[in-house]
Amino acid sequence: MPIDFGVEVTRSFAGASPGSGEVACVTTPAGEAAQVVHCGPYDQMRGAHTVLHQWCVANKRRIGIHSLEIYGDWSDDPAKLETTIQYMLL
User: Fold this and answer.
1) CA 57 to chain centre
2) Of 1, 23, 26, 74, which is least packed with CB atoms within 10 Å of its CB?
3) What's the whole-model pTM score?
4) Which of 71, 73, 5 is closest to 42 using CA atoms?
């Protein structure tokens, strides 16, 4: 499964082509998404993913090929960690 790890930037930049192992400028996909914010330790995020899947089934929505996990600011207190999880919808 191809995975991009990123840092948000204010403008695009010239870089290596995706897949070359070097830094590349990529964009997140546009479109409608199902989203949930998980508050707490990273090892407990599975429940947030389950909720998104259940919402999609209940609302007859199909999940697309892209998903995102956006990690908030770091904290030594796991209860203060926030992760936004998005599934692009078809």
Assistant:
1) 20
2) 1
3) 0.81
4) 71
